[in-house]
Amino acid sequence: MGREKYGMNGLLPSRVETIDEQADRVLAQVDELADAYNQHRFLMSIYSTNRTLFFNAISRDVKKLLPVIYTPTIAEAVKKFSQHYFNPKDAVYLSVNEPDQIEQVLKNGAADLSEVKLMVITDGEGVLGIGDWGINGAAISIGKLAVYTVAAGLDPSEVLPIVIDAGTNNQALLDAPSYLGLKEQRVHGEEYLHYIDQFVQTAARLFPNVLFHWEDFGREHADVILNTYRQTLCTFNDDIQGTGIMMVAALNSVVKVTEAPLSEHTVLIFGAGTAGIGIADTIYSELVNKGLEAEEAKKRIVLYDRYGLIHSEQKELTSGQKRYAVDKDSLASIPGNLLETIHLIKPTVLIGCSGQTDAFSEEVVKAMQTHTNRPAIFPISNPSELAEAKAEDIIKWTDGNGLVVTGSPTEPIVYKGVTYQIGQANNALLYPGLGQGLIITRAHHVTDGILLAAAHSVNEMLDLSKPGEALLPDVSKLREVSKLVATAVITKAVEDKVSRVPIKEPAEAVEESIWEPVYKSV
To answer: Could you tell me where in the chain the CATH 3.40.50.10380 domains are found?
Structure first.
């Protein structure tokens, strides 16, 4: 009947499959492919032609397929985006050289959508841990939105991936014949920020209920953009805020396991870029939320970058780094390396977001244990080859006492008869539910209270009394966690009076908003 209606008789084989049968066929073909990148390419070809089938197939094995459609495989997809480009309909591309075209381009991109409720925007300058990849960062915006739908059931006809082409400083891209972006050095500073403002004002006018999700912007601009609009628009930066929220969620688990309040922990953050400052800011907010005075809260957070321990006498510090710079006069000496810093500061938590492979050596890890029996060590840099340490090594070096969170998926580790489940600081456990709650409430802006409510909800389903239990939920529980996060976000948005929609039953509102990947009757 459907084939007749659409003039498709004879254009397809005789057998008519259900969506379940089609999804089984897709997954069987995925299994035939030799590596994750080719699996990614195949799945994204399905995404481009039949999104309902794509999401139905992914939902059948989220734990297996999420790393294929997003991190860590997405890093290779970014690098090869221009080289293997095949579908012009998957994202919207804005050029800084054509500010007069912003409105028309956005209208073109939204033409086939029912309503634009969410945009994931990137300029590709700070992609994951792999740097400036220009418009190849489109793979990130597309992939991120796919995760929103997989995890929280956002309707794919209500989201728009945006790529801002501001040039690139990646010489390999500038020299590559296949590169599809502007072949010129990046625009920076006032000219760039003026263009961003034109984009923001136009998008907010065209799509009054939209959530701006900023992704993988460079250190120079990410913080500025977020702080410019965070009080006046519903806006969120996953690199700055999302990673910080996940670290607070992991620290809440550390608090339960160690039975020591967060105010008694000292956090050393190895890597003081966009993610590192975002982590510091969110932990600071949590410490203040728990009753610590502002100055005392700052003393509980220490930053370390390529120049060493960040202190007050260093030059050319960013505004974020200045907030947490240790008073040089309070130091007996300036430590010469990470090991000396650990002995001086005596942190109980070590977070790695530097992209420096194997920076957490056996000596460094064992130094962490000299002043706390259960050191929390989180090598969260992505992709996995950039991680500061391997979870298996940390467990071994601490004789099973290390509390570990990684940035990429890690198989369970058996050590001395105990199976250690390693939690992944996968922001996919956070941002889909956060976005879902913000979209449902049409929140005026995102308060710090909303972010902390999201952090507190991530771990609600964990039983941390079990030996070897992960500090964060498994990604196989993505949908359940997203519902918890969305419900907490709605509750807090109403409490903070930023919801523009009256909502009496947050959990019901979440259930009613979920889009299911099934075919409609024809």
So the answer is: 70-233
Q: Which of 47, 70, 195, 431 is catalytic?
A: 70
Report angle CA 273, 276, 282 to the nearest 5 degrees: 135
Give the model's confidence band at 286: pLDDT under 50 very low, under 70 low, under 90 confident, else very high. Answer: very high
**Which residues fall in the annotated binding site for a divalent metal cation?**
215-216, 239
pLDDT, tens digit (0-9, with 9 covering 90-100), for 89-130: 689 999 999 999 999 999 999 998 989 999 999 999 999 878
Q: Active site includes 70?
A: yes
Q: What residue numbers does the annotated binding site for (S)-malate cover?
A: 382, 426
Q: What's the CATH code, domain 70-233? A: 3.40.50.10380
Strands 235-237 and 423-424: unpaired
Residues 235, 239, 244, 247, Cα dihedral to 10°: 140
The residue-averaged pLDDT of 219-245 equals 92
Residues tagged in the binding site annotation: 215-216, 239, 382, 426
Residue among 181, 175, 198, 191 nearest 137 (CA): 181
pLDDT score recorded for residue 437:
98
Which residue among 79, 117, 144, 390 is the active-site one? 144
- CA 83 → CA 64, 79, 89, 121, distances in Å? 26, 8, 17, 22
* Catalytic (active site) residue 183: no
CATH architecture for residues 241-425: 3-Layer(aba) Sandwich (3.40)
